[in-house]
Amino acid sequence: MAVPYRRGLHEIAAETYAYLQPDGSWGWSNAGLVVSGTDALLVDTLFSVPLTRAMLDEIAAVRPDVRIRTLVNTHSDGDHWWGNQLLPDAEIVASEATAAVMRADHTHELLAALSPGQLSGAVDEMVRSFDFDGIVPAYPARTFEGGLDLAVGDRGVRLIQVGPAHTSGDVLVHVPDAKVLFTGDILFVGGHPVVHTGPVSGWIAACDLILDLDVETIVPGHGPVVGKPEVRRFREYLVRLLDHAVRSHEAGVPLDDAARTMDLTGFADLGNSERLLLNVGAVYRELNGDGTPDELGLLTRLGEFAAPDVKDAKDQPGE
Ligand SMILES: [Zn+2]
After folding, report:
1. pLDDT (0 to 100) of residue 309
2. From CA 21, how far away is CA 35, in angstroms rounded?
3. Which of 13, 83, 197, 204 is the most buried (most CB within 10 A)?
4. How remote is the CA of residue 182 from the centroid of ligand 1, in Å?
5. How far is 156 from 177, CA to CA, in rounded Å?
6. Where is the Metallo-beta-lactamase domain (predicted)?
């Protein structure tokens, strides 16, 4: 089923919905809804209180018959949980590793206090696009490690922990009876991913796990609804990133040069190429083993990092 990439709620299978936020770049995340009878499970809230309120209003308009009793946060990035407070009656579920990061996270306060121009480039643009006022963090009441089976009415939903990969505790939300998978940020479509923690090898393993699941409809954390071919392509990107970063590190190539010289053949259409600095940097951090280069330092340098102009990269049609 081809799902149009338009902002709002889309039924992607029987009683199963995706809430999409084009264009999927910094902070523009997707969410999901699984319904059975009057019972519903929400996959992720959004980056801000107003955005999450708009989503919940639309859900209430389309499905006034249901109550969201369970909220799953796929991982600890703010664009997947900073609206949690609007669901005070739902049981919030996350992996233990994700919950630990959420409890220690105060980034929303920093972002709300920033004045325009304090950061540069894409990150500054992101901060100015969202209203971070009024966020009162609501944390998971139920945590797990590995996997967890949840009931939504008479349907089953399976949570599968695949992190550390994108973040320390990433979880996939599998809805077997609909052959649907909500990946959180284990899948980015249309843009370069962001590697926060890695390891990238764990992320590649997560792609293999997805490719082995009996699923047809895949909702990424960012970008349009896709199928397995996009997961295969994304896996190729991660393999190339890891290979390029490891070889560059071995050869003593400075990080910025390494980030600028990855071969983007086949990936020239991806947006947010400035993220290459974070992604190659994350592999360098893995290999250095001493915490450097630290992510915050890289984030504050994103604006000055001259990302490769992907429009100039040669692409192979039909890939
Ligand atoms: Zn995200």
Report:
1. 62
2. 20
3. 83
4. 12
5. 8
6. 28-222
